Amino acid sequence: MADANRDTRASQRDLVRRGYDAISRAYRNDEGRTDAETEDGTERYKGWVDELAQLIPPPARVLDLGCGAGVPATKLMTDKGFDVLGLDISAVQIERARRIVPTATFQQADMVTWEHEPASFDAVVSFYALIHVPLEDQRNLLPKIRSWLRPAGYLLAIVGAERRTGVEDYYGPRCSGTTPTEPRTSFGSPRLGSCLSGTASCPRAALVTRW
Ligand SMILES: C[S@@+](CC[C@H](N)C(=O)[O-])C[C@H]1O[C@@H](n2cnc3c(N)ncnc32)[C@H](O)[C@@H]1O
Fold first, then answer.
1. Ligand 1 pocket test target in 11, 12, 15, 17 with most atoms within 8 Å of CB
2. Ligand 1 mean position, distance from CA 158 (Å)
3. What integer pLDDT is reported at residue 13 of this predicted model?
4. Buried b vs exposed e over 174-205: b needs ≥16 C-beta within 10 Å?
5. Segment-wise mean pLDDT, segments of 10 residues, the chain, 211 residues
6. Domain boundaries of the chain, sorted by first residue
7. Rounded to an integer, what is the distance from CA 146 to the centroid of its chain?
8. What is residue 35's predicted lDDT score, i.e. its pLDDT?
9. Looking at residue 184, what is its pLDDT?
10. How many A from CA of 16 to the centre of ligand 1?
């Protein structure tokens, strides 16, 4: 049966791509920090990477799906000795990642349509990226992720806990005392990008799976 919604989902993913092209630097600086302390502070990533290293010791090969600008996760993993391929749909994110983490390898691609040979990675990680992928695409993607993993490989991912579809203006990282859609006073122009789309799912849950 023809997939009637395929074009719609492709345009949703493209909206996310344009959004991250626009907000890359506002989302994280070159050190991987947002300007505000959030619950998803960079310390949390360090804990995840430490945990991963206990499960699969470096120099294991890791795929970082939706790696952003390579910070903090790709850099932390590379510094730890992992052999990391970072993949992101945004050309701006990938251009920054190549500069910030020159020892990792990066590809600009849509994880939904990306093809790769099977059994190539010891682990796949995806931090806050699957949540941007339309749910039907996530369903199709998970078996592909599994195929990219070597036997007994790990998937470490932030996944959505409930369905949510929305497109919001992005004014920079959340500050205490503000809601995500209120402008941050430190920016000259509050409107940094209007294309950040949560097309799939919202509140986050951490998932670790061994396949
Ligand atoms: C919230 S950011 C997280 C970036 C990084 N993982 C981090 O934790 O800082 C989401 C990233 O996922 C990327 N992304 C979203 N949809 C994607 C897709 N379909 N394929 C590849 N990357 C995607 C975005 O471009 C963006 O860089």
1. 17
2. 11
3. 92
4. bbeeeeeeeebeeeeeeebbebbbbbbbeebe
5. 82 91 91 69 88 94 98 97 98 98 98 97 94 90 95 90 76 51 34 43 55 63
6. 6-26+36-210
7. 17
8. 67
9. 35
10. 8
Per-residue pLDDT at 164 = 76
Task: Give ligand 1 pocket residues (Cβ under 6 A).
Answer: 13, 16, 20, 28, 66-68, 73, 87-90, 93, 110-112, 127-129, 132-133
Backbone angles phi, psi at 92, to 5 degrees: -65, -45
Of all protein residues, the one whose alpha carbon is nearest to atom 10 of ligand 1 is: 129
Residue 59: per-residue pLDDT = 97
Burial letters 101-114, b for 16+ CB under 10 A, else e: beebebebebbbeb
Return the CATH number of the domain spanning residue range 6-26+36-210. 3.40.50.150
Ligand 1 atom index nearest CA of 20: 25
Best substitution site from 44, 67, 84 to test ligand 1's pocket, by max atoms within 8 Å of Cβ? 67
